[in-house]
Structure formats: structure tokens, C-alpha cells
Design brief:
heterodimer, A: 440 residues, alpha/beta, eleven-stranded mixed sheet, ten-stranded mixed sheet, B: 481 residues, 24 strands, 26% helix
Amino acid sequence: MARIQTNQTQGAVTRYEEAFAQFERDHSAPAWLQAKRREAIATFSRLGFPTVRDEEWKYTDITPAANLVATPIFQFELNGAAAKVRTQLPFQALEGHRLAFVNGHFAPDLSHVGTLPEGVEVRPLSEALAAGSERVQQAFGRSVNGEETFVALNTAFAQDGAFIFVPADVELAEAVHLLFLTTGDSATVSHPRNLILLGQNAKLTVVESYSASTDGVYLTNAVTEIESGAGAHLEHIKAQLESPKAFHISTTQVGAARDSQLRSSSLNLGGRIVRNNPIAVMQGENAEVTLDGLVLTDNEQLIDNHTTMDHAEPHCASHELYAHVLNDKSVGVFNGKIFVRLDAQKTDAKQSNRTILLSGDATINAKPQLEILADDVRCTHGATIGQLDENAQFYLQARGIPAREARSILIRAFAGEVLASITLDAVRDEMEERISNKLQ
Amino acid sequence: MSTETQTIEALASQEYKAGFVTDIESETLPRGLSEDIVRTISAKKGEPEWLLEWRLKAYRHWLTLEEPHWLNAHYPELDYQDIIYYSAPKPKAKLASMDEVDPKLVETFNKLGIPLEEQKLLANVAVDVVFDSVSVTTTFKVKLAELGIVFCSFSEAVREHPDLIKKYLGTVVPYTDNYFAALNSAVFSDGSFVFIPKGVKCPMELSTYFRINTQDSGQFERTLIVCEDDAKVSYLEGCTAPKFDTNQLHAAVVELVALERADIKYSTVQNWYPGDKDGKGGIYNFVTKRGACRGESSKISWTQVETGSAITWKYPGVILQGDNSIGEFYSVAVTNNAQLADTGTKMIHIGKNTRSTIVSKGISAGHGQNSYRGLVKVLKGADNARNFSQCDSLLIGDRCGAHTFPYIEVRNPSAKVEHEASTSKVGEDQIFYCNQRGITTEDAVSMIVNGFCKEVFRELPMEFAVEAQKLLSISLEGSVG
């Protein structure tokens, strides 16, 4: 269907086109990448920014993020500032490897990669590109939908992010933390791009975090591509802790091969307008995918999660749990799609979406969506919207716990269902603390 | 499996049982749509000036709109200039009693299984029969009139009760509502009007039977039901159409108005011609139905059984305006062969303590595609609003599809909204269990499906429940596999 291009964001599209011309002039890239970038910017120009008239953006007006006049940062070095931001980094207690990116660019001062098993690669994408990595060339942009505006925009401008490769039968014992930090007070835009490839039976735990060292206005437009081999195991956590004025848009594309087990949790506390698109495609039989999410909002935050579970092959299982706690004038949007393709028999898909509205001005727009084209399947989805249990609150108060605290306990218990599945204690503990702080 | 497949094929080729054309002379306007056609329709019906103006406003608005194509199906762009907008049996002298009705017409209805005579005598159902676009006869009218109940064709209501029509027409579904509602408002030819005065409980089920007879004619009927304070009515609507190779458009509008403590129950059994097994021909059933619970503690309940039509596209909704008002939606939609159904409901909670229940059962067989699309909206002032939705899909065969698109928008923290959906198939073990006990596969499937739909069927009035079960087994005959 033809997009109704409003004049509202036409200027922004032109600005990105101009920035691209400058970007291409000043920063050379391998021919294959340059071709991909050109194709992507052409796609972006054709699509333009979505409006609320697009079904996928019905509840989220992205115009403010699109129209953000931001200075593109095609090069950035921390230099002396590393010590200053070091204390502001999330998940400092997390042991393991860390790749840090500041304003979209690799920051060696904040990164450390320990000894890796043979064949494992954990390095910045920019470095892998400079080294002419065949693997990157083959996999870059292979699984994502290039026909989506923000993915196209990311592909056009992507310079850095993490590249992780775990070969067959190798287990990376320690977690890899991909840390994305935005600094500075002037409006900026960054396009982090991560590529994670798992061989057969490989095992990996990876944490993505997005945060800022200031309360500034900026746009993060991230894309993470994850591909797995047969029997691979992955635990993926995305903690979105952006500044309260930030715009955050992300796509996480997960490809689940035969017998693989992939789990991705999206934890959202920050941002002014946030849109996440976690997409999982089950490409082999007996794959199992879990997509969980937590949304905790206040003030005028708008957090929109559009998840997709695509059962392309038979005998796969998927689980999904999204919990929303919405306060003040904030808005939560949840759209959970489950596709069961023709012949994807014996599919077992479960989706659950729970919401608690804490304030009379908060809004939830939920749309669980099932599209089923095979007959021998079990698919269920449930959505509930309600309040904290008054009886439970009364129970706690009767035992001398003040109302405010009782409420906090109940909310933390509600959110705890999503956090419980996270195996990294350091991440879980810090998230619990952040949630408590936000509730005060 | 292979024997079952054979049974399927044998049964899939089964003919549409209501697909005969009645050879009655009818007066038909030329094809196409223009201001002149709108004026002619209005003139033929002897309508007052204000209604003509309203039609023209709707027509002019319609011209500014684009045909929508967002439903989960593809249909070719319709050529609105190739439709006959008015077709009426040749006018005859006014009929005083049923016996004067054209015997051929009576025969048609007899073939359809709604013998007017019998219904009149036995079923105690008052029937307003709409044949193509003109209401032929209304039974039991006198009896109802004694209670102050108005049950007549729309055109008669325009003549006899212009004040009521003027007061309520377009107040629930304005002509600006959507493309097909605008089209209907411009060219609607007839329909039913029901008015139940204060405190009256209608003593019998009211019923209308619609039938499209002329090839290429669109059916644009309009139904308006008004229940005053403490009044109550149960209304039945049934539809069939003969078999033609071309697609016919059916764009009806139904408006329900429930005032203080009024209770309206609206049941539909829709069995329009679904097209042949390759999807050729069939009715496009694009209908706008909406009820408004204006008064406190009022109630509107929709029950629908959708077995026919090539494409069904409708969302009977309830606007829960009055405090403590109740909205209900019970639906069974069956798609077989190449049929498509995109149906569901809209529950708009405005008043305090409003409650709504949605139970939707979708059954897909053959290449049928069934979509549930619903909206539950709780506005800011709707304290303690409560909604429960359940949509279950049953898939028979591996080439059909089930889709659910429930939209939930909540702006009030005291609201409780629950939505559940599930998808399943007729289990091989269930069929095996029945077979073992000497029940044929065909009967077993029919039993299982009827059990699946029971929650909805029990909401239907008795006569319709029987018909619905029969229809369901006809629609699904041969789909086991």
C-alpha cells in the first residue's frame, strides 16, 4: 500500500539523505558494504518515516524522533573523558567480557576482552570490517527485513557495534556485555549494529545495555542480528536504560535453527519514546524461543513493543511474557504477533501480556495477534489489564507495611516474573535495584 | 484418511441449497450510481425532502472516500457503476392478506425453508420479508400495533412515522462512518424499522428475511431498532441469495438504540451464497452494525452465525454510554472452500460500571480464512469497566487459516480487561473415539463442531438455533480430512 507521506517528516528524510552524502564522501567502506548502504538509503528515501496511519505505528507517533535535528557523529573518541563516565556505566558488577561503544563508536578505554576459547571472535564490527572479515560480509543484513524504515536507516549509517562469532561446539562461559553509552548535551543520533553468529551447539550469554551519561535528547536506532546453528544456546538480555528525554528504536532479529534454544529478555525503564521490534524466526524443527519483556514507565514515557514469533517450521515451541507497569501519563503499547506458517504443524505457542495501570492518566494499547495457517497446532494468547490486587495490598498493610511500600513490593513481584528467568545475578540484582529506585 | 478425503470431495461438490432464482418480473433501475439514481430511488419511494437531502449528503460524502482494502483478504476493486441499485417486484395492488402474495414468491420462501404460512401460524414469528429491495408483506402487524409496537418496512416507516426516523436515523452509524455506510445511506432501498414504546416487552420474536434475487443487484438495506425506556425486543435476521457467477455486494447498515433499561437482542443467521468451491461468485457481505446503549442499565446483545458469503466483513459493535450498561457479542463464523470472514466486534466503554462479553468461535475448513478483529476500548471516565473476551478458532484441514487481531485500549486504571484466545483442531483421537462407538466421521465432526459452538448457539432463539446447527453441518459437509 502506498504510504501517505506527510510533509511533517519530509524535511527529516532530506536531512538524512544529505548526511548520507557527506558520510559516503568522508568515510570509505569496502565495495560490498557501500553497495548495501546505497541500497538502504534508497529504500529509506522511498519508505520515508511511518505515520500513525500505518497499522504498525497506529499508537506511536514517531514524528518527534524522526524530526530530531541531530548532528551525525561519524567519528568519536573518548580521550580524557573515559574516567568521568566510567562510574556511570550499568552492570559494573557483571564479570566477563565487555565491548563499550560511546556515541556509536568503539571505546577501547572502557572495554576489556579476556582470553577467549579458540576460534571465538568478540570484537567491534568496525575492526572486523577493517580486517575484511568474510563472515561479516556474508551475514551482515542477511536476516533483517531491509524494507523497514529504521532498519534501512541503520544499514545506511551503521559503522560500529559488536561482532561475536562462537564456532561449533564451543561454549563461552563468561557473559559478553555490549555497552552503548551516549554522552554530550547536543542532540546526536547513533546507529549501533550488532552481529552475533553461533555455530552448531555453541553457547553464549550476551547483555546489551543502552544508557546515557546525561539527560540529553538523542536518538538511538539499533539493530541486532542473531543467527544460530543447530542446537545452539543463547541467553540475550537487552536493558534499555536511556535518558528520560531520549528516543530509542531497536530491532532484534533472532534466527533459531534446529534444536536451538534461544531466550531474549527486553527490559525497558528509560527513554521518552521507545519502540522495540524483537523478531524471532524458527527456521528449524524443535527450536525453542522465548521472548520476554518488562516495561516500567512514568511521566510521559511511551514504550512500544512489537514482537513477532514466526513459526516457519514444524515442532517448534515459543513462549512470550510481557509485563507492563504504567504510571503517571505514560503509555504502553504491545503488539505480539504469532505467525504459524503453512505446514508448521505441532507448533506450541504461548503468549501472555499483563498490564497494571497505576494512574488514571496512563494508557495501554494491546494487540495480541495470532495468524495461523496450519491445523495441528496449539496456540494461546492471553491479555489482562487490571490493578494491583487489593487483597494482597490489605494483607501487607495489616502486617504493618506502609501502603506505599506494600505497593512497591507488589509491583516488584509482578515485574519479578520477567526478571526471574535471567540467570545473570549481577544483571538481575541491578535491575531490581533500578526498578525499586524508579518506583520511589 | 483416503476414504475421508473421498467423502470430502463428494460433499464439497454439494450444491448451495438456496441457490435458485425466482422468476418474477421486477422493476429495475439502470446500472450505475449518480445523483440522478439517488433522486430516482428517493422519488420512487415517495420520500420527504429531508431524507432526499440526507441521501444526497451521504452520496457527496461517499464520492470523497476511497474504497478501503485493509481487511485480511483481497477483493477486486468493485465497479460501482455496474451495480443495480434498485430492483423491486413489479408493483401490484396493495396486499390485504398473506393469501394475496404472489404464489411464486411464497414458493421461494418455502424452498428456503421459511414457510411464511407456517411461521405465521405455528412459530408465532412476525416476519418482515424483504425481497430484493422492497418489503413484501409484514405479518402480525395488527397484533403488534395493539401494543404500540411499530414493526414495518423502512419505507413505510418513513411515510407513517417520519418523526421517529428523523430523530434516530444515522445517529448510531452516521453516513460519514465509513465507505460502505456512506454508500448505503445514499442508496438504501428498504429494510426494517422496529419501535418498542416505553415499558413494552415485545411478546414475540421479530424476524426479517432478506434475499437477493436479481443478478448484479446490490442489497442495501437499512435496519433501525429503537427501544424506549424499559422496553425489550428480540430481533432475528436471516439472509440467503441465489447462485450467480458474479460477485454481489451487500452493504447493509443496522442501527440499534437502547434507552434507559432497554434490552435489545439481535440475532443473525447469514447464509448468503458463498461462491463455488474455487471462489467464483458469491456475496461480498460488507455490513456496518452498531448499537448504542444510551440509557442507564440498558443492554444490547449481538448473536451471529455467519456461514455464507464469499467475503464477510463486519464488526457489530456496542457503544456503552449509559452507566451499568451491558454489551454482548456471540459469534460463530464458518469459512469453507475459498470463503473469507473478517469479523468481530467493537465494545466502547464510556459509562461507569459498563460490562461487555465477547465470545467468538471461528471455524475454518478447506481454504477458508477466518479472522477475528475486535476492539475493546475503555475511556477515561469508564470507572470499573469490565470486559471478558474469548476467541477460539477451530481448524479443519491444513490449508485453511485462523487469524486474531484483538485491539485493547485502556485509559482507566480501574478497568479489568481479559482476553483469551486459543486455536485447536478437531483431534484425531476425538474422531477415533466416536468412530469406535459407531459414529461416522462426518457425524463425529458435526458433533464436535456443534459442541465447540454451543456457547453461542444457546444464545440464539430456539427456531434459529435449530436452523444454525443445520446450516453449520451443511457448510462443513465434506470438510473432514
